[in-house]
Amino acid sequence: MRFRFALALVATMIAAPAMAQDGAGEPRWSFAIHGGAGTIERASMTPEQEAEYRAALDAALTAGEDILRDGGSAMDAVTAAITLMEDDPKFNAGRGAVFTWDGTIEHDAALMDGRNRAAGAITGTSTVRHPILLAQEVMRDGRHVFLSGAGAETFADGTDLERVPNEWFATDARRKSLERLKAEQLSAIDVDYKYGTVGAVALDLEGNMAAGTSTGGLTGKRWGRIGDAPVIGAGTYADNRSCAVSATGAGEYFIRVGVAHEICAKLPIRGILGTQDIADAVMAEVKDLGGDGGVILVTPGGEAVFSFNTPGMYRGRPTSAGVREIAIYGEDE
Ligand code: ASP
What predicted TM-score, i.e. pTM, was given to this entire model? Predict the structure, then answer.
């Protein structure tokens, strides 16, 4: 009986309509971004490299927070930050994405709207300058959620999105990684030390949330491999009732755990455990299976949280409560 009551209570909480800014007080906004997690250690970075990453994170953070502070939408903040990072060759997304085994660049991206759980995702595209905007077009079109390869390119032909030759995305550093991976028979993470996927999550002043993730996947990927980033519920998820999440890491494990949805599903029933504990617990499941990486999330209450089980994660978070943080290494916490 008591069990049934608890279940009913949980069901009521889960089915509760989106609360504008749950609770009293000033409307809040919050925002978080990542540029990948991995073996990112102070000892292996020059001060110049570190400054470049911090400047890139700061630019993406500023783009999103300006929109949110001015009353703009979570969706606009997420796409503004991600399109900037897609153009930045330091990150494994858009220009600067990793190479496939065949020496091409194929992007994955997803975007989700927490208001109604509308979502759009694409995988294996090779000519769309901003894959996150193609995911947005899929979402707006609404007939499908997830498009792949040649079909996604044909869909892009019907949009106004900018197209570029595949070579436009290529960088020497990424080409060398592929060459090393092949010559020394290394895994993607051995050769790159880090995952460089980009992502953003936002809560706007209206209480709406959005999540987006964009990546080139893993160096040397083949056989049409798809990572977690474009898989709704694995690398990307948003639901106004619970949270918005974007992930980076060893995609196969994030898919198996269903990381982004798992975190959002657990949040409405949090009691003793806080948001950070729940995110850490789900990331511990990833680690138990043998995977590594990290997540960023925002909640209706205005929290912006990071959780990662790697030495570092490129990350940033500003909130209306006055938090503003850009960090790289684990010890920056
Ligand atoms: N999660 C991405 C994937 O597995 C890789 C990354 O985070 O950089 O495709």
Answer: 0.92
